[in-house]
Amino acid sequence: MYFHTEEGAGPEHRRGPGEFAGHRGHGGRGRGGRRGPGFGRPGGWQQADLPPAEDAAAWFRGRLPSDWFTGEAQVSIDREEIIVSGELPPVEGESDPAAAKGRISRFREETRSERVRIAEEAEGRYGRKVAWGARIGDTEVLFSHLSVPVMTRLRQPQRQVLDTLVDAGVARSRSEALAWAVNLVGEHADEWLASLREAMAEVDKLRAEGPEL
Hints:
Blueprint: E1 2-5, H1 12-15, H2 56-63, E2 74-77, E3 81-87, H3 97-110, H4 112-126, E4 129-136, E5 139-142, H5 156-167, H6 174-188, H7 190-209
Parallel strand pairs: 1-5, 3-4
Antiparallel strand pairs: 2-3, 4-5
Helix pairs in contact: 5-6
């Protein structure tokens, strides 16, 4: 699969709101001086009061224009970000990935203002940034998305694993090697991770149904 990302590219990343919801720091002000979600909380939304997002996929599928994608939008969610992506119709008579990239670029420009409005609504509802993407066949482009630093303490044997990946040319740095390792685990543990998420969701549901302390 051809996979391409564009981080910090395009005029919207220079002028402010852009294609994330408001492109403002959590707890900052949006357009017209409005206070964004999480205002007054150091660092924005904290995990304890982060709004639930179980219905985010359904909300986006109901909110998105019906003619944007050829099928249902794919919605991926974590604690910091919601990524919305969908399939576009192919360029008739063209199989070159460059044609697909051109069609995706046109979609990006033509839908920019509406995507910004939808993203701002979603950030107010779910307290997370919204990023967008589109694909045609094996060509996929993420227009803008977060790269979140993760702080961790690794012992020497774990650091040696990362250094081996760097020395072998698999990764260019320890941080890239760590991301590669996480992706590898995710690819081979999808079923287990899905079961774990379901169990966690059930715990959260039972906790919410419990008595107030």
